[in-house]
TrEMBL record:
This is SnoaL-like domain-containing protein. It comes from the Bacteria. Residues 7-107 form the SnoaL-like domain. Pfam families: SnoaL_2.
Amino acid sequence: MDTREVVDRYYELANAGQWDAWCDLFAADTRMDEQLAGHVEGRETLREMVKSFPRTYASFANRPRHVVISDTHAAVVSHISGLTRQGASVEAEVCNYFEVAGGQITYMANFHDTVPFAPVLHPAS
């Protein structure tokens, strides 16, 4: 897959909740700087992190609004809409940066305000 195909597939799989297949888009030695989780190294570490998503979110969508591709780099401005299992809404504007090589994501960073994710980080009892 080229960079555009990888990025398109990233959002397709996330929006379908297919987290194992989503993780497969990342290189085994991928690196990620994630606004909430911090620095993450390795696809299997990422796979462990996203195992909680189905327990956390009743619904989750990350919809691209603007995509810029330049060879092996991409930047995507998107909007996340989620609903936690406790019924709290999560709405956030996000920017994701990708580096792709060999049809896999080798580096990713995301940038967003953390306040909209308070229901996920500190769920009501």
